[in-house]
Specification:
single chain, 115 residues, mainly alpha, 434 Repressor (Amino-terminal Domain), 2 domains, 7 helices, 59% helix, elongated
């Protein structure tokens, strides 16, 4: 979060004001929570609404924020692949139609059949 905030040139206060849950339109996180998180002070694990708002404020996909929160709060270490290609494929899959996804599965099965 700190790196992305800095890349966007945001203060914690500005990030908090941008972190609006797109589903409810409500402010999702407070300056104090962001500051405590960034400085390593204890904070309560975020709700899904807070994660959606933080993703919007940081201009990153929700999945990226969820993955970071899983690691930070629950010790979940998501491993996609050493090259990162698997993650790139999964992130793009949502942009495909159901028919395109089915075609992709068939293509993959020709190269690496499932068990």
């Amino acid at each position: 979060m700190r790196e992305r905030k800095e890349a966007l040139g945001l203060s914690y206060d500005r990030l908090a004001s941008r972190s609006v849950d797109p589903e409810t339109g409500e402010a999702a996180v407070k300056y104090s929570w962001l500051h405590r998180l960034a400085t390593g002070l204890p904070v309560q694990a975020p709700s899904l609404a807070q994660l959606r708002g933080l993703a919007a404020g940081l201009e990153v996909p929700l999945a990226r924020v969820q993955e970071a929160a899983g690691a930070e709060f629950f010790g979940i270490d998501t491993v996609w692949s050493t090259s990162g290609e698997a993650r790139a494929l999964v992130e793009r899959a949502d942009r495909l139609t159901p028919e395109q996804r089915e075609q992709l599965v068939r293509l993959l099965d020709t190269f690496a059949p499932s068990d």
